[in-house]
Amino acid sequence: MGEMNRKRLRIFQFSCERGKGIILGEDGKKYSFDLASENNQLKNQLALGAEVEFTVIREGNPSQVNAVSLCREERTPVHEYKRNEKGIPPLRPQAAAQGGPRRGDAEMRAGAGNWNMNGTQGRREGGGYFPAEREVPRYIPRDTRELLAESEVKFENYYLRLNKFPLVQNGRKGGAEKERFVVVQHDQRGLLSGTLAPEFSFCRLPEILARREKSILDLGFETLSFTAKPEWRVVVGLGGASVYETSITLHHLYGFPYLPGSAVKGVTRSWIWAEHFAEREGREQEEPGWQDESAQEESGGEKSGQEEARPCKAGQDEGFIRLFGGKTEDKKEIRKGSVLFFDAFPLGNPEIEVDVMTPHNADYYGSKNKAPADYYEPNPILFLTVGKKTEFRFTLAIRKEDNVEIKSGCFAGKRVLEVARTGLEQALKEQGIGAKTAVGYGFMS
């Protein structure tokens, strides 16, 4: 195996099951090793926050490892992290010495040209700190304005920065100035000014993922996780409510972009229906009593029994009902789906990139009396996307007693969670997730 297969990580949870040691690492993955092959002293040292090194001999869920050793280098355990650690500064820093310059004043003055709201007021897009001068936008509450003007506040949470402290820019339309909210600002030449590089390191995404998986396992669920990476960009929540013309889905507590579980479930259901039921349901509506050739051969051209083996409708398929819910066979009650689709979180610090769409016939679409023509002025609209280097972790869960083998229908012989994973992976690869999938956004592999 050699050093190429050695792995080093911090433990988030350790447990013993049937002679096996199970490590839940900070990367959100599980690793299993034989307790008999390791010394008893090591078993007592494997705890939350400890750093270990081992050799991966087989990838899986969990992955099989051996030669487990405790790293001598001491690292701060997860539960001992303090709020004032780098990345989460105190809200009110200590005052600078009287007469001396305040920290960050030079940086703020250098970037003052990026501020624009009634001449001087507005949010500076390029930096993280609010300037020392009282250049606070008027839409901010009074007590907040006073705090911002007195302190050097760093915007760590991108959700709050984008939605509670939006950038304002003046524009001209028909000769009259019109203020509007924008995700990034333009300079006098019409070029983008400032940078858009939100910082997400303080979120500790691997720890959030590991903590969530631990909570799911503690509730008695069987889980299945995998990672997927965008082939290009991903657009999520484009049409959400926002002061901007466009929006993006950000976690309301941590501020990072994510894929909601409802979207993950929806795209899985859509792909499974389109792949296994759409054609047959359409044929049944066009030609009542239609059967596919294989079903006719099995039943000798008769209808008896074939509907149970190969139902035409998704609502009659055992596997589809177990996954997403529906009416029972006797149609007397409705059962809920067994599979839980969790929000897909980034594995590391996600990238936020600015994209643009340019409607050319805005006047035509906005009025009934104007014809589409090339002489209308284009209207560029900026929107935020998740970059292609951002890797997402998808997690599915089901109660152990519900993950049974499907007996009939399109998925006969397969387990429920296996069907859900296959459907989700194929949906991400062939159908995409989020907005603008018709033009190449949202495809993942």
Q: Which helices and strands, and how do they pair?
A:
Layout: E1 6-17, E2 20-25, E3 30-34, H1 40-45, E4 51-58, E5 63-70, H2 105-110, H3 142-150, H4 158-164, E6 167-173, E7 176-182, E8 185-186, E9 192-193, H5 205-218, E10 221-228, H6 261-276, H7 278-286, H8 293-298, H9 306-309, H10 318-324, E11 325-327, E12 334-336, E13 340-341, E14 345-346, E15 352-357, H11 362-366, E16 381-386, E17 392-399, H12 416-430
Parallel strand pairs: 3-5
Antiparallel strand pairs: 1-2, 1-4, 2-3, 4-5, 6-7, 8-9, 10-17, 11-12, 13-17, 14-17, 15-16
Helix pairs in contact: 6-12
Model description:
This protein has 445 residues and is α+β, with helices and mostly antiparallel strands. Helices cover 23% and strands 21% of the residues. It folds into three domains: 3-80, Nucleic acid-binding proteins (OB fold (Dihydrolipoamide Acetyltransferase, E2P)); 111-193, no CATH class; 217-269 and 339-439, no CATH class. The protein contains twelve helices and 17 strands. Helix 6 packs across helix 12. The radius of gyration is 28 Å and the shape is flat. The two termini are 28 Å apart.
Offer a few descriptive terms.
21% strand, 3 domains, flat, OB fold (Dihydrolipoamide Acetyltransferase, E2P), four-stranded antiparallel beta sheet, 445 residues
